[in-house]
Amino acid sequence: MKSSAYKAVVLGLAIGLALGIGGYTFIYAKGASYLTNDPAACANCHIMQEHYDAWVKSSHHSVATCNDCHTPPGLIPKYLTKADNGFWHSFGFTTGRYPDPLRIKPHNLKVTEKACRKCHAELSSAIEGPHRPGMETSCVRCHKDVGHPR
């Protein structure tokens, strides 16, 4: 009986500690802002301020938010991508272990490429003509500064 009561107290403390730390971190890091479509949320981390400022000056400012280019369509894929990126961004920014300048990861590059092709389908198909899947040219190879001009 004693050991089960002890285990319950330890479990309760562990859960309480996890919820407390998680809640504090969520509030401190403005976690709710990342659930929105507001591009200003991306500038919560100082390392992203330059990217946000560049987007404000870009031609895409009036037609696209960060989520339009950097998350896939659909509620579940969008928030899975946001959760994955959010975890690794938080980890990198907290530990100071991130590349400077920032570099897009292969998965996120594919998401961005698909977003370019979705909005500019007529133009990209006219430039490329018919190609087998996977043989398309890269939009961001030549237009890497379109959303974030420097």
Q: Keywords, please?
A:
mainly alpha, 7 helices, Multiheme cytochrome fold, 150 residues, 2 domains
Distance between the termini: 67 Å
Proportion in helices: 55-70%
Radius of gyration: 20 Å
The poorly predicted ranges are none
CATH class of the largest domain: Mainly Alpha
Q: Any idea what the shape is?
A: elongated
Please write the string of helix (H) and strand (E) elements.
HHHHHHH
Under CATH, the topology of the largest domain is which? Multiheme cytochrome fold
How is the main sheet built?
A: none
Number of domains: 2
Could you please describe the fold and organization of this structure?
59% of the residues lie in helices and 0% in strands. With 150 residues, it is an all-alpha fold. Helix 5 crosses helix 6 (121-128). The longest helix is centred in the N-terminal third of the chain and has 27 residues, at 2-28. It is elongated, with a radius of gyration of 20 Å. It starts with a helix and ends in a 7-residue tail after the last helix. The model has no long low-confidence stretch (mean pLDDT 85).
Secondary structure elements and their pairing?
Elements: H1 2-28, H2 49-57, H3 66-70, H4 75-95, H5 106-119, H6 121-128, H7 139-143
Concise description?
It contains seven helices and no strands.
